[in-house]
Amino acid sequence: MPHPAADTAPRPAALACAQCRSRHLKCDGGRPVCRRCAVEGCECHYTPSRRGQRRRVQRRSSHGNGSATASVAGDDISPSTAQPWTNQPWPGMDVLPAIHPLPPDGLLEQNLPLGDHDSTLTELYFTNFHHSHPVLPPKIAYKALPVPECLRAVVRFIASILASSPAVDTYKDAACAALKEDLSWTAFRVQAQLLFAIALYSTNEQAEAQKYLQNAVDLACLLGMNRAGHQLLEESFRRTWWELFIIEGMFAALQKQASFRCNTVELGAGLPCEDPTFLSGVNLPKAPTLAQFDNRVFEDEDISFSSYCYRIEAVRILARVLAVAEDPDVEKDEFTAVDNALAGWRYHLPQCKADIARSQNAGEPDELMFQAYLIINNATIMLHLPRSNLRSIHPLTTDTTCCPWSRPLAPTFSQHNHLMKVTAASQGLSDLAALRCAHDHTPFLASGLIVASLVQLSICSLHASHCITQHRERVMLMIGVLKSLGRIWPLAQSGLTQVRSHAKEVLQRPLDTTAAGSLDPAGEEAANGEFTQIDISWMDDLLQNPASSVVHGAHLQQQQHSNQLPHHPQQQQHSHQLHPPHHQHPPLMMGQPSQHLSTATTPLTYDSFLDM
């Protein structure tokens, strides 16, 4: 028989307010304000229960309601269908284990390697990809949260790419189907479309990637993810908004856009915290504002923000570069201000962030600071390359999709000044590539290495023989990194095919062993203003028709062999062989065993190296 006091004891509230749920505190469920919020003077609101929504939605869909199915990328989003994301906090962690999302019926009918493989693919995603674009909740929370199937399907698709799974197309189709069948307008859907856009970009489907990215931006703006709101703003969703800002900025740079939408709306969302704090999931600090971050330079003490903040600032500077880079009428003061912002970014880094190779977790470099440096170096090339004399020196640097400014512009400073900054930025990109295993980085690294390789190849045509080796070695390093990236990301493989073809044409000349101050053959051509014209229209094809670029690379290689000069047999022989000076072995490449290198009696050719 129950205790008499049991009938009079207060029962737990059926629904806790959002404030109490986020803090894992008991709520009395009082309306319109619970007792705890009334005492503490906090804003109190309730999130309607979503239990049973999926079954009701599927029931309506089964009755032939065609309007219930959302299209993939070109959906018309209205405020009536979009629920403010600030009213959808994570459920309390104490109730998470009881929540198990159901996949749409359409996906259950497909013959997919789910079940046990789902957990394996999730582990693969969080181990190898999450650190590059850390927008999802921590892994433990992700597994317990009611994450919609569309997001889980996208995670599986990305993991299948990383695993080089033969079923990658099946996982991609499943992700597309899940995004079509998902009927909710939530921040989870924004995350799914953002990550799907990154995955499509890495597989050379840039047009589709752009559609998904734009749809994610539209939905995020309608949900108010770009604005500051209640203190219950979830760290994961803050990161989602800023990741949209970063990725759209990168897409704008690749697609020759002078602006992008995320940079034209209010930027009132709080800034993300450090990754280790985020991954812990407890005691998350109050998010700093953009104004607080900007005002750090006026403080007496050196204030350190999260790596994410400096990555965001890099894209804000990139946005300023995009606005002036191709403008022939830009005022000198405006140009100088942008140039100063690029240079000053490094000087305002705290000591703990200035060294990318610093130990962050188990000796691993800071991936977000790595990407911040990647963005700054790319932006520097975009700003100064059109105004340097490098473009007129060698046609390799014309019309690339990674550095798209195709029109030479009048120099703002001396052309030599612009050239020095382009050279330093391209060297900075190659230095980044040497830090650690390439496949641990974002696929956007491939774009930076492609343009840096082309810049270094152009510089090889300018410099005297005593310093050309350093540029040659940088190109070889970046070819090796692109090769490693190409095993995972098709985008890198397409770029590798073309960079390798042009490197053969530029680098297959023998080393000049004459006086240190003399010019090599490429330098003599530069002095006379004579250069070999090289077709680089393939770079624009990377965005439109990736498959055609690979075919073009094979055709270009055949054309190079057929265009040798038969009436100069001695010159022809030397153009294919590298004779190391003083009968020494050529320098060892990273990861290349010494027994695979040719000796002085068996010369190493650039053809043989570039084909490795």
From TrEMBL:
Any GO molecular function: DNA-binding transcription factor activity, RNA polymerase II-specific
Keyword Membrane recorded: no
A Pfam family recorded for this sequence: Zn_clus
Compositional bias (Low complexity): 555-575
CDD domains named in the record: fungal_TF_MHR, GAL4
Basic residues bias (residue ranges): 51-62, 576-585
Region of interest (Disordered), residue spans: 49-90, 554-599
Alphabetically ordered keywords of this record: Nucleus
Database matches in InterPro entries: Zn2-C6_fun-type_DNA-bd_sf, Zn2Cys6_DnaBD
Extent of Polar residues compositional bias: 78-89
Residue ranges annotated for the Zn(2)-C6 fungal-type domain, each copy included: 16-46
Keyword Nucleus belongs to the record: yes
This protein's name: Zn(2)-C6 fungal-type domain-containing protein
The organism of origin for this protein: Neohortaea acidophila
